[in-house]
Write a structure and sequence with these properties.
Strands 1-2 form a two-stranded antiparallel ribbon. The protein is mainly alpha-helical. Helices cover about 45% and strands about 5% of the residues. A hairpin with a 2-residue loop joins strand 3 and strand 4. It has two domains: about 110 residues, Cytochrome Bc1 Complex, Chain D, domain 2 (Orthogonal Bundle), CATH 1.10.760; about 120 residues, Orthogonal Bundle (Cytochrome Bc1 Complex, Chain D, domain 2). The termini are far apart. The longest helix is centred in the N-terminal third of the chain and has 34 residues.
Length: about 270
């Protein structure tokens, strides 16, 4: 290739690259309104964004890959935690984690009830933006790593002799929507938004024998199923897991999960001796 050919090649490559870049930019702007659900940017969402900036939340947290990465990514936090949990947490974070034990340094911002409601509205709008899997970095919470945008199980595979229901239940545990692993650890003493499920069977047997359980089920399997489908039937004491007798755990699994997946999930959780 002589100098003239090299020059023409460089000019041609530059023109093609520029055309591709301009085309992708135009296409991106064409999709922004749909991807971001801009029609759902309410006054509460705008006020919540102002609360986010006023309190410098981004100095520790991250949304859409932007932030300090010092504290958990909040891009999908409302889908993983829920409004009731977030309201209680933002009101007084110290009720949820002990700094000496969990090394949680979330300060109490003394947010008003209105500020908290607006901030959650902003974070909920963020969580519904179609970010097409970005950022790819998983959400890190108390040593647990999960994919906040992982696909949910949409097909119930038949349970046959070649397929272990416990293994299928573990898959449901990790990939349901919202994922159980987003709030529960299976490591002893690692309590996240929900209690650790390590040793669940032994703890449940002890609870059922103690007289402290006031529900109607009599078996470990029944208690676990009830906890999945009707989480407020029996709530654990303390502000971390419930408020006014209502569990922070979503009460939608009975409707959202097919009965076969609930059976598999019960089999898996029962195996956590």
């Amino acid at each position: 290739m002589n100098k003239r050919q090299a020059r023409l090649f460089a000019i041609g490559a530059t023109v093609i690259s520029a055309a591709v870049f301009i085309g992708m930019t135009i296409d991106s702007h064409r999709q922004f309104a749909t991807l971001t659900h801009s029609d759902q940017i309410t006054p509460a969402v705008i006020r919540g964004k102002n609360v986010w900036h006023k309190n410098n939340c981004i100095n520790c947290h991250t949304v859409f890959g932007e932030g300090a990465y010092y504290a958990p990514d909040l891009t999908k936090i409302t889908k993983l935690r829920g409004e009731a949990y977030l309201k209680a947490y933002l009101h007084d974070p110290s009720q949820f984690y002990d700094e000496k034990r969990h090394r949680r340094l979330m300060p109490k911002q003394d947010l008003s009830a209105t500020d908290i409601t607006d901030l959650i509205a902003f974070l909920d709008w963020v969580s519904n933006v179609d970010n097409q899997g970005w950022p790819p970095r998983p959400l890190l919470v108390t040593g647990a790593s999960i994919s906040p945008t992982g696909p949910a199980l949409s097909v119930v595979r038949p349970v046959s002799g070649a397929e272990n229901p416990i293994a299928l239940g573990e898959s449901v545990f990790r990939t349901s929507s919202p994922a159980c692993v987003a709030c529960h650890s299976t490591t002893p003493d690692v309590n996240m938004a929900g209690p650790s499920l390590a040793g669940l069977t032994a703890r449940t047997e002890k609870l059922l024998a103690s007289g402290g359980y006031k529900g109607s089920v009599k078996t470990v399997e029944g208690y676990i199923r009830e906890s999945i489908t009707h989480p407020s039937a029996h709530v654990l004491p303390g502000p971390m897991y419930s408020a006014s007798g209502v569990s922070f755990m979503p009460a939608t699994f009975a409707k959202d999960l097919p009965s076969a997946q609930i059976d598999q999930l019960v089999a898996y959780l029962t195996s956590l001796k």
